[in-house]
Model the fold of this input.
Amino acid sequence: MTDKARYQMEIEGMTCTDCEVHVIHVLEGIGASDVQANFRRGEATFWAPPELAFNQARGAVQTAGYHPRGIREVRDPVVKKVTPDAETDYDLVVIGSGSAAFAAAIEARGAGARVAMIERGTLGGTCVNIGCVPSKTLLRAADVHHMASTNPFRGLKTQADAPDLATLVAEKDALVADLRQKKYADLIPEYQIDWIHGEARFLDDRRLQVGDRVMTAGRYVIATGARPRIPEIPGLDEVPYLTSTSALSLTRRPDHLIVMGSGYIALELGQLFRRWGSQVTLIQRGLVLMPAYDDEVRAVIADMLDEAGIEVICGAAYERVEGQASDIRVHLTVAGAERVVRGDAVLIAAGRDPNTEALNLEAAGIRMGDRRQPLFDAHLQTSNPRVYVAGDVTLGPQFVYVAAHEGKIAAQNALALTASPVALDLEVVPAVTFTQPAVAAVGLTEAEAERQGLAVKASVLPLDAVPRALANRDTRGVMKLVADQETGRLRGAQVVADNAGDVIYAATLAVKHGLTIADLTETLAPYLTMAEGLKLAALTFDKDVSKLSCCAG
Done:
């Protein structure tokens, strides 16, 4: 079976065990072996040569009356070791030092490769230095402060004085320094990675220059990350605007923070400063707030912002920005009318741009997109076969866990560590916005599924039907599940709730592994946890959960 590999095919339209038998016979009839089918999960697995799997198998299943929606190879773990090439300085050079870079370097070192890591700035990349770690510790501080000042229990008398931002920022900086040392700096000698500080620049398709040093490597991984995107608005470059980086180091809260953008960074930092006592206005060009979510979920998010006293302006066209630090004026056109928003601070949260400007990618023969991001194929390989990419520089999902996942795959493919190249699969990526309540999602929304032509059904569970929320005395939120109409296979989940980020991991496993509504309703869920809401949302497809006793299924 050395010329064959194991494949998994997603199949729509199987509704019973007879369908499973039919699919098995069809695939065996074209030469596939060890075929297994599962109508509840909507999938079949089999062994076959690549050409048969990707061409004939699809056609055979479709001819039989079913709908193949995707196929992927089920791969074995890394099986090869690297044989060093005496004609190069390194087997792999990684440009960058964030999560994607370290994942690539560690994977390569595990296979015995000679690895160098190049960093022009601060070791550790975005997450530990200016992203996840500093923002989430300050967000947690804001949650504690808000709970102390507004706790919902009448039997508790709590209060909160004005926050000491200087002390909070100092504590945040100490945590960042500690994690940067333990999770990044200490790993360099541990894995025997050569560390090079400086600006990397390609000389041609094979050589890289750092300072006065020119080096060669068998393969390269670009993992240089991204930075806040600054929109082209007249006058913006003449006012002292903030980015997500500088906002996290403010030791005095602004009186009125104007936020350009309304994505997850805008929502998180907007709520943060609102809880510190700032007036906050979010401005977005689009007509719909958080368009990646379904209507029911967006409505809850809008209510959350309104309850917090955060103003949201949608459908705005930026005309110009003027003023100075104490009086900044943002001129807009909204619904055909002119409007001026005045504040003493402006935060730019309008997306990200890739850090590629100094790499001289043209000299390396690397094609780029319209925002100068390196273009790549399904295996993270660029148009230069020696160069791979990973992490935020790709402008894919800007999450640290995606970056680390891509870094590992980039190293495996660059060094040919697996029997065949590993394709990047980002169909099931959980996303979390760390507001309070938090917003999380995975898989398809109902609107996305319908755009793809899938026949789906949805359940919507308000949080006042979840016992944990009632016990918390905070029922702001909603849970929504999207499933196939025929098979009940879970296609997506959206959660607005306390600890939504923890809840969404269970939903991620369900979506990724093809679990059904029945799988969720027939599985024991611990009582008085927010995750129990997933089971209740699954029960909502067929029952009115408000008429069930506690823990009743």
